[in-house]
Amino acid sequence: MILLDGKKTSADLKVEIAESVKELKAKGKKTPHLAAILVGTDGASMTYVNAKVKACELVGFNSTLIDLPEETSEETLLQEIEKLNNNNDIDGFIVQLPLPKHIDEQKVLMAVHPDKDVDGFHPTNVGRMTLDLPTFLPATPFGILELLERYKVETSGQHVVVIGRSHIVGRPMSILMSQKRPAGDATVTVAHSRTKNLKELTLQADIVVAALGIPEFLTGDMVKDGVTIIDVGITRIDDSSKKSGYRLAGDVHFESVAPKSSFITPVPGGVGPMTIAMLMKNTLLACERKS
């Protein structure tokens, strides 16, 4: 069993990105600049955004954080997005999700200019991804592809079962892995809450991508020997034995699944760190496109 170490791989990627930034600066070109908009004080969102700002510092990017109060109106948020769309120094920006309930997330994501949409959520970029055209890939699926490639996990002709159909992970993952690419050429089944006989499907799978948000859902009796497991979930579970009072769990029951796996991502330290690294990579791509 080989751990797909997202922590180490993302660190390697950041070193590579930092080298590219040095080269850009040496040639007198602009420094990549990533901005983030945070609305409200959701704890997890604040943690994510701070991690993104730190990653920018590490690779030599400029970064801007626009911190807005919870009661910010949709109109005000759309005005902030328009300012970033028109600011030539900003190469890419993200609007941290989830947003407060009074704001229409879809409307907000549509307002981000596709050329600055380094999250890869805009319908234009989703369409380009589906047609296998150059675009920004959503950061989490992009990170998973990178892990599979770097660890030389065989995907061609393999049966991949993706559990979950979200627009952020499940759906793009299913499209990308079926395309002609190094971590692609797979036969993909998308399973979800309405899927019957899910265990029958996962027992056939050579690769399982678990992205449904139910902690420790996938257990050892649901997978075959030699499977590759990509665990996208991360949930806080109360645990009085821990100093923090909780532990982090993925969508996979690691103890029972790992012994049967050829490759498996840990939680934490698997897919999570890759997401931030690929956001940096998309920002670098956005900057290079303009030069």
From TrEMBL:
Superkingdom as given in the UniProt entry: Bacteria
E.C. number(s) listed in UniProt: 1.5.1.5, 3.5.4.9
Ranges of residues in domain Tetrahydrofolate dehydrogenase/cyclohydrolase NAD(P)-binding: 138-290
UniProt keyword list: Amino-acid biosynthesis, Histidine biosynthesis, Hydrolase, Methionine biosynthesis, Multifunctional enzyme, NADP, One-carbon metabolism, Oxidoreductase, Purine biosynthesis
Residues that bind NADP(+): G164, R165, S166, I234
Any one biological process term the GO annotation gives: L-histidine biosynthetic process
Keyword rRNA processing annotated: no
Keyword Hydrolase part of the UniProt annotation: yes
One GO CC term, this protein: cytosol
Pathway the protein acts in: One-carbon metabolism; tetrahydrofolate interconversion
GO molecular function, one term: methylenetetrahydrofolate dehydrogenase (NADP+) activity
Domain Tetrahydrofolate dehydrogenase/cyclohydrolase catalytic: 4-119
Catalytic activity: (6R)-5,10-methenyltetrahydrofolate + H2O = (6R)-10-formyltetrahydrofolate + H(+); (6R)-5,10-methylene-5,6,7,8-tetrahydrofolate + NADP(+) = (6R)-5,10-methenyltetrahydrofolate + NADPH
Subunit: Homodimer.
Function field: Catalyzes the oxidation of 5,10-methylenetetrahydrofolate to 5,10-methenyltetrahydrofolate and then the hydrolysis of 5,10-methenyltetrahydrofolate to 10-formyltetrahydrofolate.
Homology family: Belongs to the tetrahydrofolate dehydrogenase/cyclohydrolase family.
Official protein name in the record: Bifunctional protein FolD
Gene name tied to this protein: folD
